[in-house]
Amino acid sequence: MRKAAWSLAKLKWALLLAAVKGSNQQRIQIGLSLLLSLVFGLSAFGILSTLGQRSASADQILVVLLPATVIAMGLLSSAAGVESTIDARHLAAEPLTRSQLGTGLLVSAVVGPPTLLALLAGAGIAVGWWGTGVVGLVILLAAIVGWLLTLLLFSRTMANLLGAWSTGRFRQVAQALATISALLVWFVVQVLSRQLASWTSERWVQLADIAKWTPPGQLALAGVGSADPAQAALHLLLGLSWLPLLVWLNMVSTERLALSSPRPGSGGRKMRTGFQGLRSGVYAALPQGQVGAITARTIRTKFRTPRQAVNTITALAIGAGIFVVGPLLDGKIGDPRSVMLGGLLFFAVLFDGNNSLGVDGPALWMEIQAGADARVLARAKALSSLLVMAVPALLLPVGLAAMSGGWKWLPAAWILAVGSLMGAAGVSVGSAALAPVAVPESPNPLAAGDTGQGCLAGLMLSLGLLILLAASAPVAGVVLYASGRSALLTTVAALLAPVVGMFLLWGGVATAVGRLSGRESDLVGHITPAR
Amino acid sequence: MKQTDAVNQPVAGWPAIVARGLRKQFGDHVAVNSLDMDIPAGSFCGLLGPNGSGKTTTLRMTAGLLRPDAGQVWVAGHETWTDSVAVRRLLGVVPDPLNLFDRLSARELLQHLGELRGIERSEVTRRSEELIEVMDLSSSADEQIGGYSHGMRKKTAIAAALLHRPAVLLLDEPFEGVDPVSAVAVRTMLDRYRAAGGTVVFSSHAMDLVDRMCDFVAVMAQGELLAVGPIEELRGGGRLEDAFISMIGASPVDPASLSWLDNTAP
Questions:
Q1: Chain B: residue nearest A309 by CA?
Q2: CB count in 10 Å sphere of residue A318
Q3: Contact status, residue A340 vs residue A476, Cβ threshold 8 Å
Q4: Per-residue model confidence (pLDDT) at position A49
Q5: Residue B13 burial (C-beta neighbours within 10 Å; 0-12, 13-18, 19+)
Q6: Inter-chain contact A265–B105, Cβ cutoff 8 Å?
Q7: Torsion of CA A512, A313, A418, A501, to 10 degrees
Q8: Average pLDDT, whole number, for chain A?
Q9: Which of A270, A518, A524 sits opposite B144 (nearest CB)?
Q10: What whole-number distance in Å separates Cα of residue A170 and Cα of residue B152?
Q11: Contacts from B2-7 at CB under 8 Å and sequence distance 24+?
């Protein structure tokens, strides 16, 4: 078993080094991954060490924190996870036992930048919650190691299960679970960011009373219980008691993943496709010609590819939620002017269109070979983003108007929605052309690999959002000012939004065309996975 | 602009493919080195060579899917990198590895590519249905390509390459993984296509296939073009396989090596 683990860890290390020596894009991905792990790790270290030493509710916070992080990592892994540098399915034919395969892949998962983050967070807990005595320190360190092992085992098991289900009979279940996981993480973050600061020590005590009944909660109790080493040791044992079960589950799920079908669409019931019904009517309404054809194909494959479908749904939920769920949570829906926020799907369009060329995959060569040049590709990507988000952008303000009674703000809301869609589609297509990232089509939704691909995509998303915010700020100022006068004036002021949106759309498409023109075949090289 | 078959005409007097000083290097490895080659229009050309000889790289550079480090390629009189749109109109390509849109069905893929190439929708439908029928894909034509076997994927790719009736077909290992019955159908189609003036260039390891189908052969090894010309000339009155092996200087396996294969114990 040790040999297999060592060999897979070496393989992972070699693959990471190969990426460092690889293309500029791979170097940037690895560099970003390392940098972000370090930044987040140091932040976690600072926050945890300070919290542990200074907070009056430090012990309760730790008891809540450890189970919460395990659940959060499990959810995140469900949404983002099976795609890793070493695909278990490539090892299915190797003469490895279940335990060798499971242990080997677990050890290899430890090799990489995210481990830095985890270790720094663990160090933060050690510094923050170390009470007195060597025995207390030993138990605290053991609890931290137990927590890190729990994190690793739980998250990889969730990712394995979702990955295995995604290619079998339960593919729809897996897809739904991944979507729910992504949305749940986002929703919890929304709620926490609004309420965390107002939590009193009583609230922490209440939560800790619940969390302590979980194994990670027991580990936390062991860590904070240095005053009574015997009791702390008992908590430690209880906290570690489910690890054998987790190890077994991990090995079984790894084996299932290894034996699952590597190719989407195979290994399960085949899906029927066709041209009938409403969909064909929608596609027929698209403009004839190359742009229309690629737009139709993009929308069609988007909703048939689990990762892309989940991405779109999540983008819509998060994008709409930024302006809708937030005010709902804050109870501010009473302001009728909030109708105008409903259609501002900046984030949704950016998130949905993020890396839109990369997610097409190497099959894009077929369209390029069939005559689609950079101009056609850029226009089609922008058009598909606009079309996918247009319906919710126009409907959401209606929903908000129905809830708040602010019907008179609806015309302005629709105009703003059109402007925001155009601007975001432009920025999105520009960023997709500037940094196309190879993403193999995976049965796992939102899979982004663990070599920093997600970091690069996230960075482009953030930059796009910044550009949009900067460009929209003057429009927002004018509309806000006008909304204090009259709805009619606001509608007129809102007309600025499509002007800015059109400019951003033109700029984004022009950037994409400038970047890709004459280099279409290089684009195929960029988006063809190296592994 | 609506594309018609008339647009897909080669420049008069030009060979189907002309390569001059074509070179591609991956890191320290020179995949193709100063390749000069003329393939006549209307020929059925087999590109032969052992694994890693540079066949796929040559085909990809010819198709405009891989930028060469040096040199130029002309397809039917159009330079691949400066006149790429014309070249793409003239070419039908089946690359290796096959990268298809897994989430489309074969019927949808053909419809999509036909529309991209500007062929009338009704004409695309007519051609698609015939190709699907001939390729024996009818029962799966509405299922997603991701669920196809390797052979079915290959047949779908060949159908896609033929759909617009290109002037030149570049096929990388077109018969690999295709069942014998479908292979006969593909061969018949290619023969008919060639008889009507089309040019086929395909890479293969199958000597008997090349021997039977081709009238022109190019042999590559270690990135170099060893020979190019009519198959009769290369054969030199003997068998193509013998000529090929003597050209690339393949060494038979030393009986003393691999002795561990003689033992049944692991």
A1: B103
A2: 20
A3: no
A4: 92
A5: exposed
A6: no
A7: -30
A8: 83
A9: A270
A10: 25
A11: B2/B118, B2/B119, B2/B120, B3/B89, B3/B117, B3/B118, B3/B119, B3/B164, B5/B164, B5/B165, B7/B89
What are the tens digits of pLDDT across the range B154-167?
Answer: 999 999 999 999 99
Task: Give the mean pLDDT of B25-30.
Answer: 87
Q: What is the pLDDT of residues A358-396, one digit of tens each?
A: 888 888 889 999 989 999 999 999 999 999 888 888 888
Task: Give how far B110 is from chain A: nearest CA, Å.
Answer: 11
CA distances from A30 to A77, A152, A434 (A): 19, 21, 18
Please determine, for residue A151, whether its predicted confidence score (pLDDT) is greater than 70: yes
Q: How confident is residue A78, by pLDDT bands cut at 50, 70 and 90?
A: confident
Contacting residues for A484 by C-beta, under 8 A, at least 6 apart: none
Domain chopping of chain A, boundaries? 2-82+94-258, 283-526
Q: C-alpha A47: how far from its chain's center?
A: 23
Q: Which residue has the higher pLDDT, B237 or B17?
A: B17
Distance of CA A220 to the CA centre of its chain: 28
- Measure the CA–CA gap between A161 and A174, rounded to whole angstroms: 8
In chain B, domain spans: 5-100+168-247
- Does A150 touch chain B if contact means CB atoms closer than 8 Å? no
How many CB contacts within 8 angstroms connect chain A with chain B? 106
d(CA B28, CA A21): 14
| Distance from the Cα of residue B215 to its chain's centroid | 15
Q: What percent of chain B has pLDDT over 90?
A: 42
On chain A, the residues whose CB falls within 8 A of the CB of B148 are: 265
A10 in contact with chain B, both atoms CB, cutoff 8 A: no
Q: Token match 């030493």: residue? A: A53
B99 to A441: CB separation less than 8 angstroms, yes or no: no
**Secondary structure (H, E, C), B100-137:** CCCCCEHHHHHHHHHHHCCCCHHHHHHHHHHHHHHCCC
Q: What pLDDT, in 10s, does the model give residues A435-481?
A: 887 765 444 444 444 555 666 777 788 888 899 989 999 999 999 99
Q: Which of A273, A370, A521 sits opposite B65 (nearest CB)?
A: A521
Given an 8 Å threshold on Cβ–Cβ distance, is A371 in contact with B118?
Answer: yes
Q: What is the pLDDT of residues B91-118, one digit of tens each?
A: 999 988 888 888 889 999 999 999 898 8
Count helices and strands (H / E) in chain A. Answer: 23, 0
* CB contact set of B265 (below 8 Å; sequence gap of 6+): none
Give the C-alpha separation, A30 to A450, whole Å: 9
Does the CA dihedral B5-B8-B14-B18 come out positive or negative?
Answer: negative
CB contact under 8 A, B104 and A270: no
pTM of the model: 0.77
A237 against A352, higher pLDDT? A237
Task: Map residue A89 onto helix, strand or coil.
Answer: helix
Question: What residues form DSSP beta bridges with B229?
Answer: B217
Q: Which residues of A touch B109 (CB under 8 A)?
A: 366
CATH number of B5-100+168-247: 3.40.50.300
Q: Say how many residues make up chain B.
A: 266
Cα–Cα nearest to B117, from B83, B85, B156: B85
Residue A217 near residue A242 (C-beta atoms within 8 A): no
The partner residues of B169 in beta bridges, in order of sequence, read: B92, B200
Nearest to A259 by CA among A377, A426, A88: A88
Q: For residue B143, which residues of chain A lie inside 8 Å, CB to CB?
A: 270-273
Q: Report the alpha-carbon distance of residue A125 to residue A65 in Å, rounded.
A: 10
Res A447: pLDDT: 46
Q: pLDDT-based confidence at A281, cuts 50/70/90?
A: low
